[in-house]
Amino acid sequence: MATADGTFEYKERFGEGRARTYFRRVGDRAVSSVGLGTYLGDPTDAVDDAIYETVKAGLESGVNVVDTAVNYRHQRSERAVGRAVRDSDIDRNAAFVSTKGGFVPFDGEAPADPGEYVQREFVDAGLVDSADLAHGSHCVAPGFVDAMVDRSLDNLGLDTIDLYYVHNPETQLDERPASEVYDQLEATFERLEERVAAGDLVHYGVATWDAFRVPRDHERFLDLGEVISRARSAAKAVGNTATHLRAVQVPFSVYMADAFTVESQEGPEGLQSVLWYAHEAGLNVFTSASLAQGEVLSGVPDAVDEKLSGETPAQRGLNFARSAPGVTCSLAGTTSPEHVRENARAGEFEPLGAQAFDAVFE
User: Fold this and answer.
1) What is the mean pLDDT of residues 7-35?
2) 184 to each of 146, 159, 198, 352, how far by Cα in Å?
3) Helices (H), strands (E): how many in the chain?
4) Cβ neighbours of residue 10 closer than 8 Å, sequence gap 6 or more
5) Is the pLDDT of residue 107 over 80?
6) Which residues form the signal peptide (predicted)?
7) Which of 275, 273, 277 lies closest to 215, judged by CA?
């Protein structure tokens, strides 16, 4: 697992030439504010090899945050990430690895009959109660998430996962009321607290697409304060002195800034954005789609671009995302070693200061 000593030695090794705030903190660990996502790519051996080389290149270029999920590329991404972490010149205790569970994963390739596969491999096998499935493919019940922790540990070939996310729980709102989703999250958080105590996880979190950045009356809205409250109750129920809920993951980019502009979370003095709320609640924020799924590569809007530092649109886009309040790390997916090295060099430039960032939205 990532350790304070390992990650701070990594910071010392790769910090020279980078701006002061490039490395940030998750608890007592030092993590790069540019991270690598592994969602992209077809489920082929060639892409497996590309991800393997890209993860190694990232780790050896100053990017020590690698994000994946059990369902990404039908479990292939986790397996490629694990191989790369083990084979990298970087010690395991310097790499911060996160993964997710929530979507029912295929194995290696999409089956001819997905419904039959889910029934046979998950429902009939006792890993999932069909009543807990949303859209026949998503589940956040404790037994399923617990089984996915085991599967991710096996796929990655690691003893410990640094950050484990419950993946897109708002999907469940399509099938059941919010009260039931919160109840199920609390039960799952209890199981994750137990996995922390067992040494399988260091922290856990919630990765979302819609939930925290949409208005409160949106059909896929979830209240982060309620999620935190449920995590505290879960920790207490299993005898932990404090919750190990550590992070949220939300999409954020120059083209998708809702996490900053939409005031959906109920703070002590009124509504505020999820970025501000999470920051004040002491949670780390990891931004997904930080390059707007490639849109930023075609250019950043001129009015914003002129305020940003960086040699390429990707670097300036990442510097915008990691300038937002409370952001710990901005993730960008790629299967190219060249691109991950380019992204890492974004850290040579200062992100926007608070006043300059706010001015973008005035």
Assistant:
1) 97
2) 13, 27, 21, 39
3) 13, 12
4) 30, 64, 90, 94
5) yes
6) none
7) 273
Q: Which two tokens stand for residue 246?
A: 């550590």
Q: Where are the alpha helices (DSSP H) in the chain?
A: 4-14, 45-59, 76-87, 114-118, 142-156, 178-197, 224-237, 258-261, 274-280, 302-305, 313-321, 337-344, 354-360
Q: What is the mean pLDDT of the chain?
A: 96
Distance CA 263, CA 275 (A): 9
Question: Residue 108 has what pLDDT?
Answer: 98
Domain that holds residue 291: 4-360
At 330, is the secondary structure helix, strand, or coil?
strand
* Coil vs helix vs strand at 265: strand
Report strand pairing: 327-333 vs 34-37.
Answer: parallel
**pLDDT at 362 exceeding the cut of 80:** no
* pLDDT confidence of residue 113: 97
The DSSP output letter for 346 is: G
> Could you read off the pLDDT of 122-175 as tens digits, one per residue?
999 999 999 999 999 999 999 999 999 999 999 999 999 999 999 999 999 999
Range 75-104 average pLDDT = 98
Of residues 228, 159, 237, 229, the one with CA closest to residue 193: 237
Which CATH number characterizes residue 106's domain?
3.20.20.100
Q: Is 239 helix (H, G, I), strand (E, B) or coil?
A: coil
Supply the angle between the helices 142-156 and 178-197 in degrees, to the nearest 10: 40
